[in-house]
Amino acid sequence: MGWDALSLVEHAADERPLIERRAVARDGFYELQARTVIERVPQTAGIAQQWAVSPYRGCAHACRGCGARVGHRRLGLDAGRDFDTRIVVKPNAVARLRVELARWDGQELAVGLSGDCYQPAEETYRLMPGVIGALAEAAVPFTVYTKSALVVRDAELLARAGARVAVSIAFVDERIRRAVEPGAPGAQARLELVSALVEAGVECRVLMAPVLPLLSDATDQLTATVRRIAATGAGAVEPVVLRLPPGTRSWYLEWLAQAHPQLVERYEELYDRSGLPSADYEGRITGQIAQLCQMYGMRCGVPAAERREPRAAQLALV
């Protein structure tokens, strides 16, 4: 009598998040080998660069208005708490970057948009010196976006590479900072960071972002912020009003409904489906900041993106 060999154990589908199936968990981080490291910047970001390099995805600074949150959803994680606590590291970022720069066309790159490139994970992995070195060798212009004083460690490398650094300081009210940027350094620490970078010979400007509608946009708040930025020696201010793209919008509005429920309806009116604020509102706020910058002797606005002839020979795109 023949018997069919039937499995006595049902093999359940692996329902773990994608990141847990593909990455190596080590010391509280997910190590994931990147297939590519130069990624397109979302149109809603409001910065000059169109392409970016990010050694880390997710950010311990836990800024509620961070526009990079939606990236965690593609990994099977949520755009809220997981983004703040489950940091993805690309240990092969430098090697991949060198490969991709060999055929790069010289456009300026942003560094650190998917997660602050000098957040605490950088103390463990030290990827940024290699990233800076690769960009410098290829003569590709780049701007580092950060809130962290750890960037001073690499000030000499950044100065030699001719890099720009944009330090984010949207407001100087610590009560607001504790509510919406709970893991980030305070405003005073970031102001001192700007001064330290300027003193080290690094071209530094302040990304005044995100300006929070109805929370940090009053004239006296904007004036206090620009005045204290001017005292650091920063050469320019780049204002960006809060963006609420998918992922960020739900997380931010959930907090707003708890902390300032009377503002939720106004936010719903102010933002379109893509997460951009009303053009009239944005123009009014950035116009005020521009006037304040002129008063305090600083340039204001989005700088023109740089482009240089690549140092490495380009590969044929075939």
Structure described in brief:
The protein is α/β, with parallel strands linked by helices.
Average pLDDT figure: 91
Low-pLDDT parts are: 1-11, 312-318
> What's the number of helices?
12
First-to-last CA distance: 61 Å
Radius of gyration over alpha carbons? 21 Å
> Numbering strands along the chain, what is their spatial order in the largest sheet?
3-4-7-8-9-10-11-12
Structural class call reads alpha/beta
Strand content: 5-15%
Count of distinct strands: 12
What shape does the CA trace take?
A: globular
Helix/strand order: HEEEEEHEHEHHEHEHHEHEHHHE
Major sheet: 8 strands, mixed
Q: Which oligomeric state applies?
A: single chain
**Helical percentage:** 25-40%
Tell me the layout of helices and strands.
Blueprint: H1 18-22, E1 24-26, E2 29-31, E3 38-40, E4 51-53, E5 56-57, H2 81-85, E6 88-89, H3 93-101, E7 109-111, H4 121-125, H5 128-137, E8 142-146, H6 155-161, E9 164-168, H7 174-180, H8 187-199, E10 203-211, H9 219-230, E11 236-241, H10 248-259, H11 264-270, H12 279-296, E12 299-300
Parallel strand pairs: 2-6, 4-7, 7-8, 8-9, 9-10, 10-11, 11-12
Antiparallel strand pairs: 1-2, 3-4, 5-6
Helix pairs in contact: 3-5, 5-6, 9-12
